[in-house]
Design brief:
By secondary structure, the protein is mainly β. It is 5% helix and 21% strand. A 5-stranded antiparallel sheet has the order 1-2-3-4-5, with no helix packed on it. The radius of gyration is 15 Å and the shape is globular.
């Protein structure tokens, strides 16, 4: 069985949303928002999870990358 060819994600927004490969990919507009399930589908094809993890359109996974608050950076 041959997998279906990937169709490039086309952004209709002006200015265009960042691509899935861009460092600021999370700034893309949400197309589907499912807070009850903990994820959103962005215009660039990225699935963004509430824990800040990501699933890229090519199947790569980006682990959660929440910023640390100032209170977590101070040693006790």
């Amino acid at each position: 069985m041959t997998p279906a060819p990937r169709v490039p994600v086309r952004c209709p927004h002006q200015p265009s949303c960042p691509t899935a490969e861009a460092g600021d990919r999370e700034a893309a507009q949400p197309l589907a928002f499912h807070p009850e399930q903990g994820w959103s589908l962005l215009c660039n094809g990225v699935v963004l999870f509430d824990d800040t993890g990501e699933l890229l359109p090519d199947g790569r996974v980006v682990g959660p990358h929440r910023p640390l608050g100032d209170h977590l950076l101070t040693a006790a």
